[in-house]
Amino acid sequence: MDNGIICIGCGAVLQSDNRKEPGYLPASRLQAALDSEEEGNDIYCQRCFRLRHYNEIMPVKADNDDFLALLGSLAEKKALIVNVVDLFDFTNSLLSSLKRFIGNNDFILVGNKFDLFPLNSRQSKIKDWMRQEANRVGLFPKKIFLVSAKNKKNLTELISYLDRSSRKEDIYFVGMTNVGKSTLLNAIIDEMGDVKNLITTSRFPGTTLDKIEIPLENGHFLVDTPGIMTENQLASRLNAQDLAVISAQKPLKPATYQLQPGNTLFLAGLGRIDFLKGDPASFTVYVARDLYVHRTKTENAAAFYERHLGELLSPPSDQDELPPLKGQEFRTTVKSDLLFGGIGFVTVPENCLVKIYTPDKIGLGIRRALI
Predict the structure, then answer these.
(1) Per the count of CB atoms within 10 A, which of 36, 128, 149, 326 is most buried?
(2) Crossing angle between the packed helical segments 181-192 and 155-165, to the nearest 10 degrees
(3) pTM for this structure?
(4) What pLDDT is recorded for position 60?
């Protein structure tokens, strides 16, 4: 129903029925606007409010036509593309479809959350792994950076590179949700100087998709685009409380467990490792410090999981929101990291046969050990 009040940010008629439609405002806030007797009361929809006050663009689905049109337009521009990825969910946060859109433009990879790696981690080894994984899906980044957006770590080299590039082209930041893309861009702005008041919003022509443009003195722009939602990210399946538990805030502290074949490790209710064959060995777990890790016998594991899921094995606190655990076997020929995308990794020795599980196999993988 047309209530006669429009959002002064995007022009959509305000409504409280569907948060996914233009003009959405929570019912209480909309009613307050309707009850207000003030003339010219400036009312923003929820989306424009977050954009204006937090430089936060509402995320879009990976198959969103408006976003695909925005990506498709990049090939016609002279631009540098910056794909921000989560180092703890690299495969699922790498925008592999970029190769279809960037044309002759260069792109760089920026691995965020480097501060969470143990202090003895070698940057060169992590960058080599990132490059190999990108090459495997047909992406060839011109440069790779490791940073911490939250702690503003390793930003100097990245900013210098972006400064040189921005003298001849605009710079577009793209990435999945929960990788810290907008946090990184705001950290870069802070380091560059007080330009926050220069942030403007620009509507993508004919659509409701926004981007944030930061004008630079040289006439070019830093451009933030919406985060992309995909069901291939475990973070997109968890509520805020559970996400806070799996999201490390300090460098991961390794915890080593002595296992023999027939043992199982649970990473709360989100991951499982069955040690099937091999000599007794040390399995070193790198996850957030508050995430519960439990060792048991494999023969008892299924019953234990069913009995304690959502309680002792939490997160998930609400198992109805997640698909069941599914597993995949891996045989290690060298010291390797078993990957649990969005959670962490477990380092195991060579000559092990393991089966690892996550909900619907989301984020499963293996790599040569980085540490």
Answers:
(1) 149
(2) 80
(3) 0.82
(4) 64
Exposed, middle or buried by CB within 10 Å (0-12, 13-18, 19+), for 317?
middle
One-letter amino acid of 71: L
Instruction: Give pLDDT < 50 ranges for the chain.
Output: 1, 38-40, 194-208
- Token pair for residue 338? 């078993």
Domain boundaries, the chain: 1-54, 60-230, 244-368
Long-range contacts of 12-20 (CB under 8 A, 24+ apart): 12/45, 12/208, 14/43, 14/45, 19/46
Convert the chain into a string of H (helix), E (strand) and C (coil). Answer: CCCCCECCCCCCECECCCCCCCCECCHHHHHHHHHCCCCCCCCCCHHHHHHHHHCCCCCEECCCHHHHHHHHHHHHCCEEEEEEEECCCHHHHCCHHHHHCCCCCCEEEEEECHHHCCCCCCHHHHHHHHHHHHHHCCCCCCEEEECECCCCECHHHHHHHHHHHCCCCEEEEECECCCCHHHHHHHHHHHHCCCHHHCEEEECCCCCCEEEEEECCCCCEEEECCCEECCCCHHHHCCHHHHHHHCCCCCCCCEEEEECCCEEEEECCCEEEEEEECCCEEEEEEECCCCCEEEEEHHHHHHHHHHHECCCECCCCCHHHCCCEEEEEEECCCCEEEEECCCEEEEECCCCEEEEEEECCCCEEEEECCC
User: 60-230 has which fold?
Assistant: Rossmann fold (3.40.50)
